[in-house]
Design a protein that fits this description.
alpha/beta, nucleotide-binding, single chain, 637 residues, Acetoacetate--CoA ligase, EC 6.2.1.16, globular
């Protein structure tokens, strides 16, 4: 056992002097420790975010409006300003290396910034020929390949709106997302490779396209060489013509992309972020917390369906080389990503906490990481043992940054900074500009106690809206229903007296399997479509950064038994319609699914029971419609 809070790393004077945040603070003439700087950043948001715009020389016009006006959830930033994400991401010396691409098959591509700009210009011209303009939506069903990044930047340059899903999602999950935003163009691969196998998705793409009535064109990226027939354009046709690269400058809050919630309580929420908020937030976070800039090689293992892809490509904003990887993290073995980092001279290596714990359990001992300065961990809490393994087996002088935030803001609320030490299981600080507090049930801030993670002041990268939510009611209900005027995020957090933080996981229910996040409602839509299934409940027993077992409980229709055939059909449907990672490890028959009086499934209490909480302590029977069924979920003693 590793003691939580054990000191693992301290920044040397040389590290502090070289840190990008140090140069920023010197420019401002600010002194004091990090906690003092953080307090200034949240108590004087207009001064802080103005300093970010000025320090990084954001390309655009600021306008004469106030930096911030109004309060959450209606705060407006930099009124009268105009800018474009792509224009800021694609500035710099054309000869520097902007993008490196690798896949598990061994392929490697590289783009200089000049070459990337040329490709973006070609695809931009192709989108214009398809009629795409400001405000139109371009949806993408693509893995983490250069074409995804190029298509996004081309879309953003037009003031059009991007949205993407990973190609291991099934057609229903994809259309649940894309149908809400009514895209004009779909960019899609014919298949992908994962774990040494090829997966043809051409039929799924046709099904998705057929369910999107507003679609005017499908652009195929032939990764497997499948024949698209006359179903749309080929990628090379889209990029066939050269054209000048231009940028449509848009207001600060103009939609940049649409990300999606996991869909736990219904259809995935289409979360819209603006150009300006993302530019400022990612400049701040990547430069000051990840300590990234020119000369760095930035990697994060992610799919295009996770917000970390959007965060990864933000490395272009700070002048770093972005390393894209398509494939399994564990093919041909668990050490694959560490070898990739060594071969490409990665300076910042990001991944999900489960990969770090899997590497630890597999006894991986990475080598050749001389250039590595930072490691990022996110997606779930990293246990103290994972922290300690990084320093004992990966590199003793690396800065390990466990980060926690969310799709909702496309960044981290709490994380690391080069000025502070690393302690096992502890996130060093609240991020600049993020007014994070822990609230007790009465809505009062607490220190040294576990509480609800809340944000008490607005941030620029908070959603500008949810798509198709003109009144803002769904947005307000999602974050501000519990504490009016205060953002409730849905995580448990403990803030320590020195500003350090410990995250204890979600206070709601999300299935996160291998980095693919999926809401339980999406799971139920597949399972309960079967006539044989009367009701169902899915529980992921994973905790503290370790992937647990995925358990499916079903109540069967009258006269039905759980045959091998039914179990096989359930697993096949979940694999094809959600993802291969969401196939249950076990399927159990129970007499009923526990529900509240209002009919909501009790996922959290059942999970507690499966992890050892006594039935009588897991839920209040007076609040349940059928409390007698809870005992059927208790593990055998």
């Amino acid at each position: 056992m590793v003691e939580e809070g054990a000191l693992l790393w301290e920044p040397t004077p040389d590290v502090v002097r070289a840190a990008r945040i140090t140069r920023y603070l010197e420019r401002l003439g600010r002194t004091g420790d990090y906690e003092d700087v953080w307090k200034w950043s949240v108590e004087s948001p207009a001064d802080f975010w103005t300093s970010i715009w000025d320090y990084f020389g954001v390309v655009g016009t600021r306008g004469d409006g106030p930096v911030i006006q109004g309060t959450m959830p209606d705060a407006e930033w930099f009124a009268g300003s105009a800018l474009n994400y792509a224009e800021n991401a694609l500035r710099g010396h054309p000869g520097r290396t902007a993008v490196i691409f690798r896949n598990e098959s061994g392929s490697r591509w590289q783009y200089s910034l000049g070459e990337l700009r040329e490709e973006v210009a070609r695809v931009r011209a192709g989108l214009v020929r398809l009629g795409v303009g400001r405000g139109d939506r371009v949806a993408a069903y693509v893995p983490n390949i250069p074409e995804a990044l190029i298509a996004f930047l081309a879309t953003a340059s037009l003031g059009a709106i991007w949205s993407s899903c990973s190609p291991d999602f099934g057609a229903p999950s994809v259309t649940d997302r894309f149908a809400q935003i009514e895209p004009k163009v779909l960019v899609a691969v014919d298949g992908y490779r994962y774990g040494g196998k090829a997966y043809d998705r051409s039929a799924v793409v046709r099904e998705i396209a057929g369910r999107l009535p507003t679609l005017e064109a499908t652009v195929w990226i032939p990764t497997l060489g499948a024949d698209a027939g006359d179903a749309g354009l080929i990628w090379d046709d889209l990029r066939a013509e050269t054209a000048p690269l231009e940028f449509e400058r848009v207001p600060f809050g103009h939609p940049l992309w649409v990300l999606y919630s996991s869909g736990t309580t219904g259809l995935p929420k289409p979360i819209v972020h603006g150009h300006g908020g993302i530019v400022l937030e990612h400049l701040k976070s990547l430069s000051f917390h990840q300590d990234l800039g020119e000369g760095d090689v930035f990697f994060w293992y992610t799919t295009t369906g996770w917000m970390m892809w959007n965060y990864l490509i933000g490395g272009l904003l700070v002048g770093s080389t972005v390393l894209l990887y398509d494939g399994s993290a564990a093919h041909p073995d668990t050490g694959a990503l560490w070898r990739l980092a060594a071969e490409e001279g990665v300076t910042y290596f990001g991944t999900g906490a489960p990969y770090i714990t899997a590497s630890m359990k597999a006894g991986v001992k990475p080598e050749g990481l001389e250039r590595l300065r930072g490691i990022g961990s996110t997606g779930s809490p990293l246990p103290p043992e994972g922290f300690a393994w990084v320093y004992s087996d990966v590199k003793p002088d690396v800065q390990l940054g466990s980060f926690s935030g969310g799709t909702d803001v496309c960044t981290g609320f709490v994380g690391a900074v080069p000025l502070l030490p690393i302690r096992a299981g502890v996130i060093p600080c609240r991020c600049l500009g993020a007014s994070v507090e822990a609230f007790d049930p009465s809505g009062s801030p607490v220190v040294g106690e576990v509480g609800e993670l809340v944000i008490t002041r607005p941030m620029p990268s908070m959603p500008v809206m949810f798509w198709n939510d003109p009144s803002g009611d769904r947005y307000r209900e999602s974050y501000f229903a519990d504490y009016p005027g205060v953002w409730r995020h849905g995580d448990w957090i403990k803030i320590l007296p020195d500003g350090g933080c410990v995250i204890y996981g979600r206070s709601d229910s999300t299935l996160n399997r291998g980095g693919v996040r999926m809401g339980t409602s999406e799971f139920y839509r597949v399972v309960e479509r079967f006539d044989e299934i009367a009701d169902s409940l899915v529980i992921d027993t994973g905790q503290l950064g370790q992937e647990g077992r995925l358990l499916l409980f079903v109540t069967l229709a009258d006269g039905v038994s759980l045959s091998d055939d039914l179990a096989s059909r359930l697993r096949t449907a979940l694999r094809t319609e959600l993802s291969p990672r969401h196939v249950p490890d076990e399927i159990h028959v129970v007499p009923g699914i526990p529900r509240t009086l209002s009919g909501k499934k009790l996922e959290v209490p059942v999970r507690k029971i499966l992890l050892g909480t006594p039935v009588e302590k897991a839920a209040n029977p007076d609040a349940m419609a059928n409390p007698e069924v809870l005992s059927h979920f208790a593990p055998e003693r």
